[in-house]
């Protein structure tokens, strides 16, 4: 066959075989997708309000949505809300970042070294099973009512999830990629950097998401129990103030803030990263 | 001509109480030769390629290669998190070349398989044939003289496979490569190889050899290839039949 004939045949076949990727989604679809969860939230608030009316529930047991909104507004005006949200969020992020720094090498070593896994794997699994709130009393004894207590509890909650996510990501790497690393003569470091870590990324990301959720929960548990002027005001402490004052509106408002921040971090941070990864790899 | 791959009395088994997977293999592959290896399932074709590629060690005997071989699989094994271009760059990156050199070389290699416009495409955006051409470009990026191919076109449709046959012959000739091509498709073996080796199964042994004196350009549907393929198929079938009573 003539060479240019061959080239044009090949190009024709490529054009026929190539999948066309979808264009950008319509703006309307995106807005609808963003607003849909609000429908459920509004519905929940309506049911909440109605139940109070129908069953005539006292406000010290369950305040109305408006009472809670009022409590949020009041705390905002006092500056407590900003302070508590800022401090808790910062602590959560700091603890989480520190957890990533510790968990990542642990995950890589246990993911790649079968012997290390046999030795340390069960301990890591045990730590993951343990609710990190169980560490609060011990941490208080070790570190007193100091920020170290709070970070220790966050790390104990978050590190095992991140490390285990990375380990399962490494376990699920298709063997052909590891074989490829050998065929292409990658050295050990190149193999980890360019094959193992990117291939394990989806599992690692799932571990990070779970690690954040655990970090956030652990932080709230620690703040709720470890209360001292030295620790300042976090959302957990705000919640405890509500309990002590018998101010149910403040209690509900604090719970609401804890949930809101958790959802926001997932939606604003993790969800876009995950979607981008899946789209790039043709998994979405 | 000097030899590219020299196999001397090679035996292979995966554990000591098992029978041989490969038994007493002897083969000399000359520099620039194109060898087709055919055999039924379980003949150890892939095991042999792994030994030549250095992914595994023989239990007995010696394998000598003139340079470090590269290996292509049935799957393209393109990394899904990298673009086609970055996949081709990978072996060059592992050698420590800088970014500009890597890109220039990858673009040149993609152009040589008629995929210069796919540099930024992701593997999932490419067809099966295009993926295998990217994999060929990546193998060439290793600058190895010996290309081992483990049923690389088995999963492709007939039209695409025909095109890739032409492609691989052209690349073999232009780059002066030594190719060992494993397949269970006898016609493909005859279409491509200068020599076709038939392997028996359990244990894997070389049982017969044919020289294919058909001029390029060959066509898979030509009568000469059909006649030769028929003869080889008959031998392959009698090899398989031996296992009926076992």
TrEMBL record, chain A:
CDD domains named in the record: TM_PBP2
InterPro entries on file: MetI-like (IPR000515), MetI-like_sf (IPR035906)
Keyword list, A-Z: Cell membrane, Membrane, Transmembrane, Transmembrane helix, Transport
Subcellular location(s) of the protein: Cell membrane
GO cellular component: plasma membrane
Every ABC transmembrane type-1 domain range: 85-269
PANTHER family assigned to the protein according to its UniProt record, in alphabetical order: ALKANE SULFONATE ABC TRANSPORTER-RELATED, MEMBRANE SUBUNIT, TRANSPORT SYSTEM INTEGRAL MEMBRANE PROTEIN
Gene3D superfamilies assigned: MetI-like
Source organism of the structure: freshwater metagenome
Gene Ontology terms: biological process: transmembrane transport
TM spans (from-to): 30-50, 95-113, 133-156, 251-270
Protein name as it appears in the record: Unannotated protein
Membrane-protein topology: Multi-pass membrane protein
Principal location listed in the UniProt entry: membrane
TrEMBL record, chain B:
CDD domains: ABC_NrtD_SsuB_transporters (cd03293)
SMART domains the UniProt entry points to: AAA
GO molecular function (one): ATP hydrolysis activity
Transport among keywords: yes
Residue ranges annotated for the ABC transporter domain, each copy included: 5-226
Keyword annotations: ATP-binding, Nucleotide-binding, Transport
Listed name of the protein: Unannotated protein
